[in-house]
Amino acid sequence: MVKRNMRVNDELVLFLTVLKWLFISSLIGGLVGFAASGFILFIHYIIDQSNYYQHVFYLLPLSFFVANLLSQFVLKKHLGTDALIEAINKNYGKLEGSFIPTKIINVVLILATGGSAGKESPCAQIGAGIGSVCANLFRVDDIDRRKMVLCGFCAGFACVFGAPIAGALFGIEVLAVGVIFYDVLLPAFVASITAYQVSSALGVTFFYYPLKFVPAFGQGFFIQLLTGGIFFGLCAYALIRAIQQSSAFTNALPLWRPWKGLLGGFVLVGLTGLFSRDYLGLGLNLMEGCIKGLPVNWYAFLLKALFTVITLSISRSGSVITPVLFIGATAGSFFADLVGADQSTFAAIGFVSILAGTTNTPIASSILAIELFGATVAPYAAVSCVISFMMSGHRSLYSSQRLAVSKSRAIQVDVGKEIRDLDPVNSRIDIHLSTWLRDVKRLLRKR
């Protein structure tokens, strides 16, 4: 009799817990969907208006100058994605800065004049901030506060990706390499789906292109896929290193920060005049055309990477996810031409694979392939995502990510630390041969 009552009580508690988080996460998701949609629609409107002026990119030096000026003297408490990840990991989601995206002016300036950046950081900040405000209103404890902030964080990514499940998983997976917090899956999914539905109802449009894909194993498709995963992983590693080195170089320049912005803007103006406007701004049209199989310059991914590295290291504003997706799609197109494969298929696979490699989110990126490109290509995209994730090493565009597991038993790293603390400049990484390699070596010596 006691056991039966205990069982009923457990089920009742779990039922009430589910109801509690359905209500809270739906509320947070609805608020985030409304606020993030307003920001996204506003950004798209500004970009559309600026596109009427072909030479608006001439204002890049001025916009970079003003953005750096605001960052230095006015907007010192801006919470970027890295700071949000750190707050969720270390401080139960308690946000020290304002939850309002204080650098929204900088983001608008940069994207309106053609800076190569994305829009996910303000959306993630809006979401996390709304989750934090709701936690204050409900006066919850630290554990529930962390869940609520994470709900908003995931919902913000869902509005950017246009893929609610991938957005939720991305927000969870990006916190720590090799760990997924299962206790927050339900509220994160509900918040993300709610935010996505609200965004769609308010007129935010998203890109979907289900591929008519049939794997041709007789033509060596799987070998091409494995090779492509390695290529995308190396691209991800190179992009991370380029952004890190460029930021370090920019910080070391003995110039006033706004003058650095002015100089970087002139560099981008020169590159745009030399090449094309295709690599400015979000670049959504070229990226979508690439996935649809339209021809693109083979060096497009290199130029987009260059434009992005300069923008992010100089402006200190904007986000990186949208440029990463552009680089992935165009790198996939280049690889397809190189090996004689279908351009549309590998553009889609590169789209998610470089995202997986640069942010250490192979599961979320694999789900993104399903939601955007259909189930037929998803298993192969997942293989490429995992390879890219492995090849990019213990690095990330988000240096506050926590490393929970090593990517290889042959590499000895201090798990539990943030990725920024694993940089070879600051810490040694000892590489040892694994057991099976030592066995092979011993066998060869006997022969």
UniProtKB/TrEMBL annotation:
The keyword Membrane applies. The keyword Transmembrane helix applies. It comes from the Bacteria. It holds the Pfam family Voltage_CLC. It is found in: Membrane. Keywords: Membrane, Transmembrane, Transmembrane helix. InterPro entries: Cl-channel_core, ClC, ClC-type_chloride_channel. The chain crosses the membrane at residues 21-46, 52-70, 149-182, 188-209, 221-243, 263-284, 296-314, 320-339, 346-367, 373-392. It is a multi-pass membrane protein. This is Chloride channel protein. It comes from Spirosoma flavum. The lineage of its organism: Bacteria, Pseudomonadati, Bacteroidota, Cytophagia, Cytophagales.
